[in-house]
Amino acid sequence: MSHRVKLDRLGTFKIGMHTSPADTVKDFTASGNVKSVHVLFQPETKIDKNKTRTRALLTGCKVQELPKNAVSDALDDVEAV
User: Fold this and answer.
1) pTM value?
2) Which of 2, 32, 59, 75 gives a 20 to 30 Å CA spacing to 46?
3) CA–CA separation, 27 vs 18, rounded Å?
């Protein structure tokens, strides 16, 4: 029914699905064409007076590239925990 659940200051959740194609609308069935369902999340976005967008949960998030071969070392550290 495409309902969304909005949690203030957090974001919006809705259901998504993966389907396989059908030749016609009449050939499409939920049991035959829907392969999986999942939850989609969209963080709440605020726009300030300078038109800067801020997304909930992502404020202060930084992304940086690891030095070559550091990825496998980082994964080893995580698996050891």
Assistant:
1) 0.60
2) 2
3) 17
